[in-house]
Amino acid sequence: MTATLNPPITTESTPVQSSAFNEAEFDNYLMSTYGRFPIALTRGEKCRVWDAEGREYLDFVAGIATCALGHAHPALVETVTRQIQTLHHVSNLYYIPMQGELAKWLVERSCADKVFFCNSGSEANEGAIKLARKYAHIKLNIDEPVILTAHASFHGRTLATITATGQPKYQKNFSPLMPGFHYVPYNDFEAVTEAIASLNTNKRRVAAILLEPLQGEGGVRPGDVDYFVRLRQLCDRKGILLILDEVQVGMGRTGKLWGYENLGIEPDIFTSAKALGGGIPIGALMCKQFCDVFEPGNHASTFGGNPFACAAALTVCQTLENEQILQNVRERGEQLRQGLRAIAAKYPDKIAEVRGWGLINGLELAADMELTSADVVKGAMAEGLLLVPAGPKVVRFVPPLIVSGSEVDMALAAVDRALS
């Protein structure tokens, strides 16, 4: 790998805004909810971003798998500029034509029949939980519906979705948690059947199973095809809803439009957010017709599906098709994994495994080393590359879907230097 990323520099085209940012003042007014890395980003273009000091970085975080088209994509810039000058918000008291267009696009390119728009992945998953519970009550006559989720999962930050999240670190000090959830190991079919057998009583029954096609925050762990096929068959036999959280893996991130397409099955309900708006906040809850049991007043969102967010999302959708970006995702993803495996072979004492789909990939560090994912992220940052941890031992690579082959080579060279 000979490609290198230019050392962080200040250029005439990169505005220096150091005097406009004061870290101490920032921390004085913001709640301490984030452990931030010590840079302030002020500008972006394609797969590059610049900080307040004018230093350039290759962005392999993309707002945590969100900026699918990179930064300042001309189509998105044109759309949001035009829409903010036309009509940006009116609420769902009225018909919003752009919302209908976006819903049609999503339905025609997925297994869904109906769509509900919200503002984030957490909200989309919250809506899925509500939909599953109502379906359980009115269609299955279950008094106490239970939703199975997986250990090491991540489904959001609301009280219901952190309860659904099978990671105690996100739940600590927020008890009492929401009732009606039970956790099983990921990719373990026998654990699911055992849980269903042990949980079901006269009043209580498993009504739904909520899983990620690939666990993102849980360490970039892809689902096993056989596991999901058997799970789909089980749900069909027992009348259990299969819900897939596609917040991170949906919208082309895996090289297919939806993560479930990698597994050979269709969910009953699935969610999307992150890349759907390319960085503009929007989430979507999608379902098949038979489980669309919401009625007016059951669920709502003031901002959800407003003209501005829907215009941005529709542009992202159309650009993915018009520029054949999914093909790029598949090619660049394979290039990235091959390069990471070469690095793993070079540092066998430091790296345990490389895994992923498309452009969501994880580099797992050796368990017996003191080296953490945060250490590698900091080392890569010093080399001009932005990465993100996925747990204490996994480094996540989620660049914009438009990333080029030369930029993948640059990222690999930066990782190599950081590890050395």
In words, what does this structure look like?
This protein is of the alpha/beta class and 420 residues long. The chain folds into two domains: 18-66 and 325-419, Alpha-Beta Complex (Aspartate Aminotransferase, domain 1); 77-322, Type I PLP-dependent aspartate aminotransferase-like (Major domain) (Aspartate Aminotransferase, domain 2, 3-Layer(aba) Sandwich), CATH 3.40.640.10. The chain contains 13 helices and 17 strands. The protein has helices at 23-29, 62-65, 74-84, 97-108, 121-138, 159-164, 168-171, 189-199, 225-238, 307-322, 325-346, 373-382, 405-419, and strands spanning 41-45, 48-51, 56-59, 114-118, 144-150, 181-184, 204-211, 214-215, 221-222, 241-245, 269-272, 283-287, 351-357, 360-365, 385-386, 388-389, 394-397. The protein has a seven-stranded mixed beta sheet with strand order 4-12-11-10-7-5-6, with helices on both faces. Strands 1-2-3-15 form a four-stranded mixed beta sheet. A four-stranded antiparallel beta sheet has the order 13-14-17-16, with helices on one face. β2 (48-51) and β3 form a beta hairpin. The two termini are 14 Å apart. Mean pLDDT is 95; it is low at 7-18.
